[in-house]
Amino acid sequence: MEEIKTVSTVEQNGSELLLTELEKQGVEIVFGYPGGAVLPLYDAVYCKAFHNILVRHEQGAVHAAEGYAKSTGKPGIVFVTSGPGATNAITGIADAKSDSVPLIIFTGQVATKALGTDAFQEADIVNITRPITKKSFQVNNATELPKIVRTAFGIAMSGRSGPVVIDLPKDIMSQTVEKPQAFELQVPTGPDLPAGAVATLAKRLSKAQRPLLLIGGGVAAANAASEVRQFVKKYQIPVVTSLLGLGIIPADEPLFLGMGGMHGTYAANMALANCDLLLNIGSRFDDRLATKPTEFAKNAWIAHLDIDPHELNKIVSTDLALVADAKSALQSLLAADFEPPAAKKWCQQIKKWQLDYPYRYQTEVGTIKPQEVVEEVGRLTHGDAIIVTDVGQHQMWAAQYYPFKHPRQLITSGGLGTMGFGLPAAMGAKIANPHTEVVLFVGDGGIQMTIEELAVIKQYDIDIKIILLNNQALGMVRQWQDLFYKKRRSQTIFNSQPNFITLAQAYGIESLKFNPNNWKKTLADVFSKKHCVLAETQIPQLEEVTPMIAPGSPNQAMMGID
């Protein structure tokens, strides 16, 4: 347990005290948008020369903070004003809650005397956000600020990480404070695996004939990628990841089967269906992975390790459910030094699945396929780029065809599936990782939801490469209509679209369009530049993401594998 105490400070107002506390917490950058209720706060930002990225919409601020947090593990910080400023942030907050992203969102609020009077730009953001945060606070006295801020950091980062909202009435931000409240804060550490559980797991794993490891985003959140890799190598157990687990195991690891679930590999899904032991660490068995919970790993003994007790036995019934920190749990299993399972035949069967049914697509002369664009980006970046996606078909193509090597390398909206996430999240990821190539894959639908953030990219000279895959449709929804609604394409085809090249240029962003005859050379030229470039490519409108598992079908019932 770590003990934190306040120290005496010179006289400050609430806004100055807040910025001082953020500096103590190591905050270097904030994503925000000012307004009347946060004028005292932004005056302090000006006077202290605090680094604020001025976004163009509050949703963009939260998604940018998510990109920052997802790529670093550090909490992302957001400043927004009251009323519509706060409510505009709600989608991003819900997205962060779903994907366990540590954020602290500071919202402006009307003065305390005006609370509850329907004052101008008043919204009860504390109660509005309670279901989509780990905790929502309202500050009633500026002396409480250090305690609340430090508590918020502890909540956001401990256990299953997530967003915290701190609501700041305007008069509190101007209130003068000579000495903040003294307090002690104890930050809990994650629970360890009980010795008996380690012994049980070791015995079960050693005797399994068809063992399988399932890894989710919780492993990256626990900074346990190194331990997972050691575990796989030491015990020679095949491994599958969720979407948010991609990169934890390198794509070229022989025992890595790929992503499981709705658009996962055939080998991964067949292994999930046929294993006799499944050890899940840090994945919540969501419906895109465990597509039919009652049939999921039906013949397996299942152990589930998760930092969040609410995820245990919520969707899939397990034989051993343990609340544990992924890093310490894996360290305990490595130290157990048990006999690796005798799974030679199992590994041979998995290899056959991999060879017989890899991801595949048909090329066409004179046509640029999205899958080959992703593959070429992987080749040009040597698999080392941070890949950001929006939501839709392009998200799945990126997950399927980019050769991920590192944890925190795929930045995407997994649980909530938020269109508009990609562009601001890419900004945040690049700001956090200025020396790493950041590539955004985005569709023509999603980019228009937060396209105003191109102005931010220009203002701050943020070097991201934007690959716009344009099919003039809401491709994933259209695909479902074709498969499950007899091709009734209701409201999914865009009959009118802007000229994205001209639009990007209006924001001052260099832009170009791929020609099918020389697009690979053009793409290489894009990556030779040291500033943002938007590269648009027209892709077939009816291109589909395959393979696929129909909703409600078991993992082994895959379509489109031939």
Protein described:
This is Acetolactate synthase. Its EC number is 2.2.1.6. The protein is of the alpha/beta class and 562 residues long. It has 21 helices and 24 strands. The strands form 6 sheets. The chain has a 6-stranded parallel sheet, sandwiched between helices. It has a 6-stranded parallel sheet with strand order 13-12-11-14-15-16, sandwiched between helices. β17 (386-389), α16 and β18 form a beta-alpha-beta unit. α1 runs parallel beside α7 and α12 (266-274) packs antiparallel against α14.
What key phrases describe this protein's structure?
6-stranded parallel β-sheet, alpha/beta
Short summary:
Its EC number is 2.2.1.6. By secondary structure, the chain is of the alpha/beta class.
Number of DSSP-assigned strands? 24
Tell me the radius of gyration: 24 Å
Termini separation = 54 Å
Name the beta content range: 15-25%
Shape: globular
Regions with pLDDT < 50 over 5+ consecutive residues? 1-9
- The SS-based structural class is alpha/beta
Average residue pLDDT: 95
Share of helix among residues?
25-40%
SSE blueprint and pairings:
Elements: E1 2-5, E2 12-13, H1 14-24, E3 30-32, H2 39-48, E4 52-54, H3 58-72, E5 76-80, H4 84-87, H5 90-98, E6 103-109, H6 125-129, E7 135-138, H7 145-157, E8 163-169, H8 170-174, E9 176-177, E10 184-187, H9 195-207, E11 211-215, H10 217-221, H11 225-235, E12 239-241, E13 256-259, H12 266-274, E14 277-281, E15 301-306, E16 320-323, H13 326-336, H14 344-356, H15 370-381, E17 386-389, H16 393-401, E18 410-411, H17 422-432, E19 438-443, H18 454-459, E20 465-470, H19 475-484, H20 500-506, E21 510-513, H21 519-527, E22 533-538, E23 548-549, E24 558-559
Parallel strand pairs: 3-4, 3-5, 5-6, 6-8, 7-8, 11-12, 11-14, 12-13, 14-15, 15-16, 17-18, 17-19, 19-20, 20-22, 21-22
Antiparallel strand pairs: 1-10, 2-9, 23-24
Helix pairs in contact: 1-2, 1-7, 3-5, 3-17, 9-13, 11-13, 12-14, 15-16, 15-21
Pfam family, one: TPP_enzyme_M
InterPro entries: Acetolactate_synth_lsu, AHAS_TPP, DHS-like_NAD/FAD-binding_dom, THDP-binding, Thiamin_PyroP_enz_cen_dom, Thiamin_PyroP_enz_TPP-bd_dom, TPP-bd_CS, TPP_enz
Domain Thiamine pyrophosphate enzyme central: 199-333
